[in-house]
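Q: Sequence in, structure out?
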Amino acid sequence: MMATHSGIPLRSNWFQVPRPVSNPRLRLFCFSYAGGNASTYRDWHTHLPKDVEVCSVQLPGRGNRFKEKAFTDLDTLLNSMLPEIEPYTNTPYAFFGHSMGAQVAFELVRKLRDRGCPEPKCLIVSGRRAPQRQKKSKPIYTLPETEFRDEIRRLNGTPEEALNNPELMDLVSPILRADFQLIETWIYQPSDPLDVPVMALGGVKDNQVSMDDLEDWSKVTKGPFCLELFSGDHFFINQVPDSLLSTVSHAIESVLGGAEGLLATRKTS
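A: Exactly. Output:
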């Protein structure tokens, strides 16, 4: 669907906007996990304030962009996305990213800052270790197909009906492999902390992301920081959507309401 910018249509296949808002008080850009697509966030607008426009990011290789080649390098992805998202930054906006999406969102904020663009009102990172905490396990994107699919099954993010459908997995597996290559070949480069409120979200049963991994997101910003935990595993965003969206909605109202809001007062102990 066509998105809008200050009431003027802006054509971009990078974003899907289920409920366009002519003059949004804030745009929430949502970045999905590995193998995911914009449809992950298609219903979020029903749980958020009516003057918040949800913009789901659609990466190449999936959904309506399935004929395009998926990116395998994060810098290449970011450099392609920058000119698409930059026109939106004159309207207040925030980023939400889960797992791989959190990594993409964080690096995109740094790129926008370095280009002198307005920074987001808030960065919400979900189900992802802080960028300076590098994963120590071996990459999976180079594994033979059978072993790769076994690892995907273990991560519990792909529906069982898809895993048990060889034809469907033949379509899905290349996207997953490209996304994991993008994640696993990325090397964090330290820079000055952001001046943006950061909220880190995690699942209490997530065996991929520890409490320390989440707490260290506080080190990427000079602004307010808080941490929230939810019942569920790494994919808690699909398991407890009501609780998650209530938190996201409160965070948005907080940053729009001023520095004394939710993010400034709810600190991690």
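The chain is about 35% helix and 15% strand.
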